[in-house]
Amino acid sequence: MERLQKVIAHAGIASRRKAEELIQEGKVRVNGKVIKELGVKVSPHDKIEVQGVPVEREEPVYFVLYKPRGVISSVSDDKGRKVVTDFFPFITERIYPVGRLDYDTSGLLIMTNDGDFANNLMHPTSEVEKVYVAKVKGIPSREAIRSLERGIKLEDGKTAPAKIKMISMEKTKQTAIFEVIIHEGRNRQVRRMFEAIGHPVMKLKRERYGFLTLQGLQAGEARELTPHEVKQLRVMATKPKK
Ligand code: URA
User: Fold this and answer.
1) What is the per-residue pLDDT across 202-233, written as a single tens digit (0 to 9) for each?
2) Is 8 a pocket residue for ligand 1 (Cβ < 6 Å)?
3) Is 102 part of the annotated catalytic residue set?
4) Prediction pTM value
5) Which CATH architecture has domain 62-125+211-238?
6) What is the CATH superfamily name and number for domain 130-209?
7) Is the CB of 120 inside a 6 Å radius of any atom of ligand 1?
8) How far is Cα 135 from Cα 152, in angstroms, rounded to an integer?
């Protein structure tokens, strides 16, 4: 369910503010009935008309993208850099990423035009498990890794407990590779966590998001989520916090 003014704005008919005015002026009907109050929520099945003209609503679509490095998690970039929607030239719907991966981070990113779905997944209480593989500079001590697992103080507060496992290390090159499992999705979180223990991340990839993996995808490729996967993600997003 989405707010009426948001649906009107999303359909490209008017700005959110203008849509609110149209509603208050009695120019919007839902299933034939004039609605003048703001805050009314509508489902994809409701028929909306603005000044007698039916609102064409996009069907919700859902994709998983293997974002390559060197791409912005946005729908446009004023500096002309590559953005994640460039990988969907065949899609007419206005999709956008659920959360973001840094420009230099590769890996799994969900793309959709379903605002509720995206908001629920991104909500801090949704607790979807995200799995990253991070190559870091130097070889962190066990104790440093334990401190990251317990939660470490960053400028926006202490991180929630994380699971971290060393995959390999190269003593001669002084680098190490870790699998990092977190639930939160703060900005540049993994990079900031390792920075906080003095081992900056050199390379970062998101390998898993909940039950979704990159299996079968090469960097730059996307596939549509199955209806069952979409349902599973919805359930995960609305799970009450333990
Ligand atoms: N953590 C980061 O530091 N960067 C990302 O892109 C995702 C998680």
Assistant:
1) 999 999 999 999 999 999 999 999 999 999 99
2) no
3) yes
4) 0.83
5) 2-Layer Sandwich (3.30)
6) Alpha-L RNA-binding motif (3.30.70.1560)
7) no
8) 19
